[in-house]
Amino acid sequence: MPVDWEKIEEKWQKVWGKAGIFEADPESNKPKYFITVAYPYPNSPQHIGHGRTYTLADVHARYMRMRGYNVLFPMAFHYTGTPVLAMSKRLKERDKELIDTFVHIYKVPKEALKDFVEPVKIAQYFHEEIKAGMKKIGYSIDWRREFTTIDPQYNRFIEWQFKKLSEARFISQGSHPVGWCPSDGNPVGQHDTQGDVEPEIEEFTLIKFDYDGYFLPAATLRPETVFGVTNMWLNPEVEYVKAKVDNEQWVISKESIEKLRYLNRKVEVEESLSGKELIGEKIKSPVSNEEILILPADFVDPKNATGVVMSVPAHAPYDYIALERVKREASKLEKYGITQEAIDKLKPISIIAVPNYSPYPAADVVKDMNIQNQLDPSLEKATREVYRHEFHNGRMKENTGEYVGLPVAEAKERVKENLVKTGKAETMYELVNKPVICRCGTECVVKIFQDQWFINYGNPEWKATAHKCLNNMEILPEDLRPEFNYVIDWLHEKACARKAGLGTKLPWDPEWIIESLSDSVIYMAYYTIMKHIQKHNVQPDQLTDAVFNYIFLGIGQPNEVAKEAALNQKVLEQMHNEFSYFYPLDSRHSGRDLVSNHLTFMIFVHTAVFPETLWPCQIAVNGSVLMEGQKMSKSLGNIIPLREAIKMFGADPLRFAVLATSELLQDADFSSTLAKSMRDRLERFYQFAVETVQAQANVKGGQLTLTDRWMLSRLQEHVRTATRSMDKLMVRKAIHSALYALDQDFQWYLRRIAKENMVPKRKSAITEVLNKILDAQVRMLAPVAPHICEEIWEKMGREGFVSLAEWPTYNEARVDMGAEEGETLVRNVLEDTLNIIKATKIAPKRINYYVAAPWKWKVYLTSLEKSVSERIVLSALMKELMTRPDLKKMAEKVAKFTRLIIDEINQMPDDKKHRQLQVKVLNEHQTLKEAENFFEQELNAKVHVYSEEDSQRYDPKKKSELARPYRPAIYLE
Ligand SMILES: [Zn+2]
Description:
The protein is built from 36 helices and 29 strands. By secondary structure, the chain is an alpha/beta fold.
């Protein structure tokens, strides 16, 4: 009977909505849990990758609800920023690629596309699209709190936030390098670039080498190596220019002209010249005044800084490799007028001493990595390795003048400072992870931005409070904590406003619009009051600073504040109460890409605006989703929009597929085979539920056997594992426990009771067990597969919703160690017997089991007990055993047996020891006797169980002597 997923999903979504079960209001007698996930940008539909982050948050919300919390899980939409502006511009220009994406991948109807010339229409369209998807996949969201970041009331909230930051002196204005799109005329952040790349800006030192009245400004990140320069590199295939830069004359690559202009330098080009013309020329070092030869090198990239590179072959792998080549091919340089003699003179100059390296670390690493040519990609890695060792462990040598003996880290700063001070060097900002491409298709540059507004995340006191907040937070998974610490330390001023885009105007300088990573950091607080704003139609001008100060910080007298703002005092107080009830934020979810910005900004700004009691409590971060092992991308055409996937596989199977195969930070590998197998698995579960419900109709009571008790005891174990896993959001492990591991035990149980099910008096007990399994399982699976579980819950005839039912609790009273060890015994004996049959190739007619004598149990348990605290040795153990008269009488036998078991006991895992010690003497005879029928049916032979010392036993081969506790002796014939 196939499951009609769509019908079941629609049914329950409608019922949930009608009953309003996910709408959370303050309840004084119930603990609250406030969970949020980063609100989406509505500039495309959500796909399976987004599905993972939001589904995880929903599963978390549903789990906490079942744990008895009053859970608030709201959602909003982030319109802020420029992406939709760029999109509508491209649409106006009839950009074919974008139109294709909209029509074929996003399935936007042609009609809707016409409206997209207006940016906000794009946002509104995808807003509704995303929202519909979230409903279809069954998220338990309180939709009464929905808003967009361009709502005028929200704008007021963000203005208040910025005034708070300004009062705390965390806002500043000045010149600052920013990633910049020349085409849009706007700063760019991670959200504005293709592939969501954050532009990384570094400061290069431009060391000026004198060339006949001109300067060749060599760009370097390692100014301290200027003492080791042997030659200069230019690319002969590249166009250079002589240009007036501010008041000096420079030779630089053509590509660097525009970049220098963006950095506020005046550049006037005088003449253009080819790299070839400069090869073989001589220039002068600013530190030694020595003559230095210009040589050709392919690796010089005219787009990188000035396109002029100094050569330090002792410490830079690129330079070392290039110099080696020049030496090999010296004859080719004759055309530049460079003599063999001049080349022979070039030798690497070692200026840094590093432990465990020769004087020429670059040469060491190049040899180790077996790098042969200058275009080898391993050169990057080699460069980083040399740099890392020299930076951390290197010291400057005597040939570096006043810097001798300094650690490289310090020398780097001092050399740069002194060269700049004496006019021998300047600095230049450059992107180090280029090319960074803006969403509009233009390559980004660095621009010095005048009068830019910043949030100063570099403030040391602020960093200290951010660390304090982080230290008190739970980070899931915990492995990510060092990354957060690193980001807090590393953050500096962040441009927080721009001159275009949607969003909130900077309250004191309304030409500026607050950008998207700055207006999305404390908005969780706004959810708590949004319900009232909506319900009472609160107007933006009623949301004064005093109103927010009262709601969020408890400042002022409510009657006065309300009167001043022309706001109903009751409404004001309700907002304050609701915020006070739900705040602080208990859990914040997001994908991993937001650790280095959004999530850390959230920590910072919370500490700046709110008192410590209202700081966020937890961050949960998840990995991304791969499609059949590959990254999802438009170019690969492997992006499946979420709504389409729901249609294809069903909401519950899809929720399962994105969560069941990987833990938090791992990438989940999605495939339609996987989703279909999840669907099959859930359908089998549904089948089991329907059958169990039908079977229970007229069944009462019945004695539980050992096997029944075993099954119920195992169930407790799976409940415990699932609960512990869910507490850490290890959903994969929880599902594994609640479904797959439990199922393994269940299959064994079914095998054990296969025949008994026919016996009426057994049937009722078995049905009771099945019911208990179903009851626990449907609850444990409900957070991940809510629709099908709700349907089963109804079929079970239960009251209310499984979505609101109690999560099963681990019941220690139900744990039955005796039953567990007994069942393990049955299992092992069956397995051992089958192994013997396989090895001997006989088909037995009669099987005899002999269980160990009581004295063996005495010796066994004494050894076990002793081994808990120490490694047992034979002599000491025997001494102790011989204090017992009954054992002393049979000393030789005891010694022989002890020798046999001692190694095994020493190697036994602790938990197994404790279990067996708890059980004490297992009644093996009775256990195996009860399972006689089962063995006979499995082994197709007559089965007899004897005690080792039973005088009536059948034991023609004296096998019974071999019996050991938990290891009965076996004799087949
Ligand atoms: Zn652009």
